[in-house]
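Hello forum,

I keep getting stuck at the same step: I have a sequence, I want structure tokens, and every attempt I make locally crashes halfway through. Rather than fight my setup again tonight, could one of you with a working pipeline run this one for me? It's a single chain of 208 residues.
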Amino acid sequence: MRRLQTDYIDLYQFHVGDVGVSDADAVIATLERLVAKGKIRFFGWSTTSLPAARFMATHSGCTAIQHEYNILQESDEMLQFCEQQNLASINRSPLAMGFLSGKFNRDTRISKDDVRGAGHSWTENIFKDGRPNEDVLQKLDAVREILTSGGRTLAQGSIAWIWGKSSSTIPIPGFKNIEQIEQNAKAMEYGPLSEAQMTEIDKLLGRN
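Reply #2:
Ran it on my machine without issues. Output:
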């Protein structure tokens, strides 16, 4: 709070996703005390576990669940839960670790010093052995034209797809420079993809 020059945090998110529900009581009790003291206003959990999200949502101070969500890595069950519980669906990795920026192709080789090339099992759906996964390259090729419609960049189209899924979604794309910040923010000027575009994407990706 000193660094942010504020007296309170609007939303404090618990970022240890694999804590068991049985062990989360102490965490939530602490968060509730912080709410009572006025140090934070609301809290949430960054997790891929639906039981964890359900448990967190039983507490009145919970207003958000953060989970991975992008056009290549859907978690619709979690999104639907957030909608049902009137929770914000905060979407990490909306650009699939940068893959949906369009800067990677079949000739890309990523250094092992980069998390995407380090061989982690949790990156293999997108990057494997320092290369983009062929399956996601094909999927991106299939929907690229729709995502870049209307003058959008590929990244802006990927964010627009998330907004097209639900009004509860709040994508949080990464950035490395001011230009990327401005491009991410400009996605708001275009808004979500249309219902027809969303349906066409589902057809192209074999989802209906």
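The beta strands are 9-14, 40-46, 62-68, 88-92, 127-128, 131-132, 169-171. If your local run keeps crashing, start a new thread with the error log.
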